[in-house]
């Protein structure tokens, strides 16, 4: 069975920090979009006092990152209505809803996203249909990327999960070999998805975010920091969409 890591909360300077103990060598701190959640991954044997001292020393940096996220442009919640703006792989498309007596489907041309639904389909159902379509786009695009990075990194993915996530673009469980990808990546440029897939598969080689992990990314994608910067500075999703 996959190993379950237990997390707990500590409060530093009025900020709540999620701490997870893992079999890693170094501490890792992140401030995750879109809401600035603070997380620390720490070695299993590290004392609580040492973890707390580390967090206190990073308070200024944490607040700076949270302020940056607060000021970042956010996309309004999608209602899935006529002429609403949607994105696919970084391209802005206008939604056109077509009523048909046939199974629902989505088609895309140079300027439009066409959603074909039966007459009387509710907003909730339209949202569900589009969410499923976006998940399918991620699965199709990620399949070849996973094969590419499996070969280059000499690793194997057990299962891929695609889901809407509010705190991170992807995730990896090195113990189970499973990875997760955020559905919202289908709205971002394809280079961002490529970076996230590499990032998660690299964790199958190096579970932490230490020097070895950075060196692995550097050797396989020298421009990975540029792609990460692009992804993290694109408009964030606000409200429920998928």
Characterization of the model:
Residues 238-242 have low confidence and may be disordered. Strand 6 (85-88) and strand 7 form a beta hairpin. The chain contains six helices and 13 strands. It is of the alpha/beta class and 242 residues long. Strands 1-2-4-3 form a four-stranded mixed β-sheet, covered by helices on one side. A four-stranded mixed β-sheet has the order 6-7-9-8, covered by helices on one side. Strands 10-12-11 form a three-stranded mixed β-sheet, covered by helices on one side. The protein has helices at 48-57, 59-71, 123-153, 190-202, 211-220, 224-233; strands at residues 7-12, 15-22, 28-32, 37-43, 74-75, 85-88, 91-99, 105-108, 112-117, 160-163, 170-173, 178-182, 236-237. Helix 3 packs across helix 4 and helix 4 (190-202) packs across helix 6 (224-233).
Q: What's this entry about, in short?
A:
The protein has helices at 48-57, 59-71, 123-153, 190-202, 211-220, 224-233, and strands at 7-12, 15-22, 28-32, 37-43, 74-75, 85-88, 91-99, 105-108, 112-117, 160-163, 170-173, 178-182, 236-237. It is an alpha/beta fold and 242 residues long. The strands form four sheets. It has a four-stranded mixed beta sheet with strand order 1-2-4-3, covered by helices on one side.
């Amino acid at each position: 069975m996959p190993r379950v890591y237990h997390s707990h909360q500590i409060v530093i300077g009025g900020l709540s920090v999620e701490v997870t103990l893992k079999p890693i060598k170094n501490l890792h701190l992140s401030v995750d979009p879109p809401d600035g959640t603070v997380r620390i991954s720490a070695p299993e044997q590290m004392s609580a006092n040492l973890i707390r001292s580390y967090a206190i020393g990073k308070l200024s940096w944490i607040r700076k990152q949270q302020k940056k996220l607060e000021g970042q442009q956010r996309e309004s919640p999608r209602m899935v209505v006529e002429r609403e703006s949607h994105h696919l792989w970084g391209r802005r498309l206008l939604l056109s809803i077509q009523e048909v007596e046939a199974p629902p489907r989505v088609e895309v041309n140079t300027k439009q996203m066409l959603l074909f639904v039966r007459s009387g389909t509710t907003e909730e159902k339209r949202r569900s249909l589009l969410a499923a379509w976006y998940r399918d786009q991620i699965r199709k695009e990620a399949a070849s990327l996973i094969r590419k990075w499996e070969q280059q990194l000499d690793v194997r993915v057990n299962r891929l999960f695609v889901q809407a996530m509010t705190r991170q673009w992807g995730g990896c469980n090195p113990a189970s070999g499973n990875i997760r990808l955020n559905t919202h990546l289908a709205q971002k440029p394809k280079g961002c998805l490529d970076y996230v897939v590499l990032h998660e598969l690299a964790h199958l080689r190096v579970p932490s975010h230490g020097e070895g992990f950075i060196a692995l990314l550097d050797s396989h994608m020298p421009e990975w920091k540029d792609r990460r910067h692009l992804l993290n500075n694109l408009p964030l999703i606000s409200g429920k969409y998928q």
